[in-house]
Amino acid sequence: MTQASSVVPVPRGRSVRLIALLAGLALAVLVLDQVTKTIVVATMFEGQRIEVIPYVLQLIFVRNPGAAFSMASGQTWIFSILAVVVTGVIIVVARKIHSKAWAVVFGLILGGTLGNLADRLFREPGFGVGHVIDFINMPWLMPAIFNVADIAISAAAVTFVLLILLSIGLDGKRQRKTATPKEATHGDA
Question: Residue 133: phi, psi to the nearest 5?
Fold first, then answer.
């Protein structure tokens, strides 16, 4: 006797819409990230600080040669390779996504990754080792300067953790905890 599969196929139209959501969100993040960076480079000088809302929001133009908090400066090529790998993984996993929430998570990660990768590939000092343009500072929140791509990646990370904590799978359904063999034979008591 065989067990019936509990996996219900997702209609093709829904799958296409979710991939379109992921791709559209990634494109929107990428464009917004690159447009804001282009404006900063064109209108500010490096190191310039503009108080938008005192003690709340500042614009500070920096070129970041590393990762978060300028860690691993001089190792930009590693982050370029990592970004290409992340992009590839998202493209492969995208077909398995059957949930709007997961499509948003992967769209934000993809857009943010591509935004910072574009800097590393095409900005000074050269291809694959370019410095990421950072310009947003919220001193009350954290001592970091970041950009739109970083915001998208951070939002995706928070949503990712929430989905995992809520046990929501790529299919959008809450995964049930299965009883271990010991719990099944002995009960909860």
Answer: -85, 120
pTM of the model: 0.81
181 upstream amide cis, omega within 30 of 0: no
H-state helical runs in 44-147: 76-93, 100-122
CA diameter of the chain:
72
The DSSP line for 127-150 is TTTPPEEEEEE-TTT-S-EE-HHH
The answer to whether 58 touches 50, Cβ cutoff 8 Å, is yes
In whole angstroms, what is the distance from residue 186 CA to residue 189 CA?
7
Work out whether the CA dihedral 81, 83, 86, 87 comes out positive or negative.
negative
90-142 per-position pLDDT tens digit: 999 888 899 999 999 999 999 999 999 999 999 998 888 889 999 999 999 88
Alpha carbon 29 to chain centroid distance? 10
Q: Is the dihedral of CA 126, 31, 98, 177 positive or negative?
A: positive
- The pair of structure tokens assigned to 123 is 């900005």
The catalytic site residues sit at: 134, 150
